[in-house]
Amino acid sequence: MTAAIAHRGPDEQGKFVAPDAGLAHARLSVIGIGDGQQPMSDVSGNLTIAFNGEIFNYVELREGLIAKGRRFRTSSDTEVILQLYDELGEDCLPLLNGDFAFALWDNRHRRMVLARDRMGVRPLFFTSKDGVLYFASEIKALLKVPGVSAEIDPIALDQIFTLWAPIAPRTAFRNIHELEPASVMIATEGQVMVKRYWHLDYPHRDAPSKVTNEDDAAEELQALLTDAVRLRMRADVPVGSYLSGGLDSSVVSALAAGMTPRRLQTFSVTFDSTEHDESAFQTEMASALGTHHRAIACRPGDIARVFPDVIRFAERPIIRTAPAPLYQLSGLVRQAGLKVVLTGEGADEVFAGYDVFKEARVRRFCGRQPASRMRPQLFRRLYPYLPGLQQQSVEYLSAFFGTGNTALDDPLFSHRPRFKTTAAAKIFFSGDLRAALKGYDAAEDLASRLPQAFSLWHPLHQAQYLETRFLLPGYILSSQGDRMAMAHGIEGRFPFLDPRLVEFAARLPPEMKLKGLVEKHILRKAAKHLLPTAIRERTKQPYRAPDASSFVGAGELDYVRDCLSEASIAAGGLFNAKAVASLHEKCRTQPVSGFRDNAAFVGILSTQLWQKNFTGQEVGAAKAA
């Protein structure tokens, strides 16, 4: 099991075996390099932990424990968890400011404690076989357990083809589960209990805001973000930073550059396609900060070349190629000799930066006057980077964005167009898969899981919750984040997901985050003296990569042809072979710009690769569970 995830911890391995429990660890040594070996036991030998990630406030926690008379044998943050747990039990979890997943064997109480960080940065999966609980940071380790096999979960596949990711605790693998973010599992003989120790919450939409002064809010935000970066610069190895050229990574890099004793190393990915490339902004920001900047070019053919590896590490089908350039980027960081990199991920969720938030506001605006011909034209302003959209009629724009089709009180109002557009790719599902799904509706399943207070929140906060609670851990931090970075033994750190900053942003009134149609208003204000004006005032350009076009054309690779052949599709049993053949031919012979066909092509190809990699053969559609 440990060997299967050796890429996550290439520095050393260790194991602990007791009569009723075993722990193993593949280590990426970042803090306490000389004395942080794992699994680690406390001085009594009653507590033993295997821990992935970092506790960024371990210095302060350690000082507090020392003040209580506790002594430490190591300089690692791992021992801090052990001693804090010894003091408080699982009640220690809310005190941890970090990205973590850990398993702790408590021999005194004969229980295994599994826990995961609030936002879901670090993964943790589990399954049971013959009365034994197994767990690991990646599913490929669980597949080493005798009797545990890979089988596609059709419900999870439907969720991916609607919501972009499975709804935890479900995974792409039948009978293998994910511990949800901000959760702790306590397993004793014959009993397993899971509970959440933290919840993302927002104020009542009609309650007077406790934050009223915008200047004060911007000042507090800058202080919080500065401290979040400071904590995440803690390491016994150099820390670099991703630099996309956008607002978020530029702010993080600017703060980090002022905190490193040596020249900050920054990293970015470039594209030949002007639609996707941001290299001019990357160069400008790197020059302004004086960083040692490296870029890797994602050229035609690169995405297709690495895509099988991307699926092997992501461990699930995906409907976008965006993880592939990030897989290349983390390889560049590893080549530069670094192990740790800061990233701006999380800012769009926390400060309402995505187009989906602006789009929902325009749709509500249009929904109040559905006959207006002027209001749907606002959608052209939202998507200046989509040339095809600029040419569409008012009637098309109104119909596409569903300006009059969705009830304003629908809890999924903000995300209905995305879910509907993505789910259109399910037209390629096979009859057997449809029968197995028995009319299952992933969007309604998601709606049924919303907290009771959801209906009391402002519409922007509802949209933020959907994005932060589900898509962020389910796709952004996993398929695009941890899994692509750790494939090369790189630890990503996310200052915008510091719990203090997340809770502060949740309290802000909506107009401080989305002011008119200007996203992340308060962050721009806080970054006033940190960035060049051209960077600070840039309109959000979402990170994207070429999709279907990456795989077809003169240099089409053999595996693409094989995976999408009628024989392979028919053998897999999940998709309609003739319909897929038509889609493949369409993508070969003409530019495909529609989201449905791009999502379908990437989703089908990735599912076929998933089956080949994890089951060893194409298998028929399974029954829904």
Structure description:
This protein is of the alpha/beta class and 625 residues long. Helix content is 41%, strand content 14%. The strands form 4 sheets. It has a 6-stranded antiparallel sheet with strand order 3-4-5-6-10-11, covered by helices on one side. It has a 5-stranded parallel sheet with strand order 14-13-12-15-16, sandwiched between helices. The protein has a 3-stranded antiparallel sheet with strand order 8-7-9. Strand 12 (239-242), helix 6 (247-257) and strand 13 form a beta-alpha-beta unit. It is globular and about 70 Å long. The two termini are 27 Å apart.
Counting DSSP E segments of at least 2 residues, the number of strands comes to 16
The strand order across the widest sheet is: 3-4-5-6-10-11
Radius of gyration: 24 Å
**Amino-to-carboxy terminus distance:** 27 Å
What is the multimeric organization of the chains shown?
single chain
Topology of this protein?
Layout lengths: L11 E6 L4 E6 L12 E2 L5 E9 L2 H10 L9 H12 L9 E9 L4 E6 L8 E5 L2 E5 L2 H4 L11 H10 L13 E2 L4 E6 L2 E6 L17 H19 L6 E4 L4 H11 L7 E7 L7 H11 L2 E7 L3 H13 L8 H13 L4 E3 L4 H4 L4 H13 L10 H5 L4 H4 L3 H7 L15 H8 L7 H7 L4 H6 L11 H18 L1 H9 L4 E3 L5 H9 L2 H4 L7 H6 L6 H4 L21 H6 L2 H7 L4 H13 L5 H21 L10
Parallel strand pairs: 12-13, 12-15, 13-14, 15-16
Antiparallel strand pairs: 1-2, 3-4, 4-5, 5-6, 6-10, 7-8, 7-9, 10-11
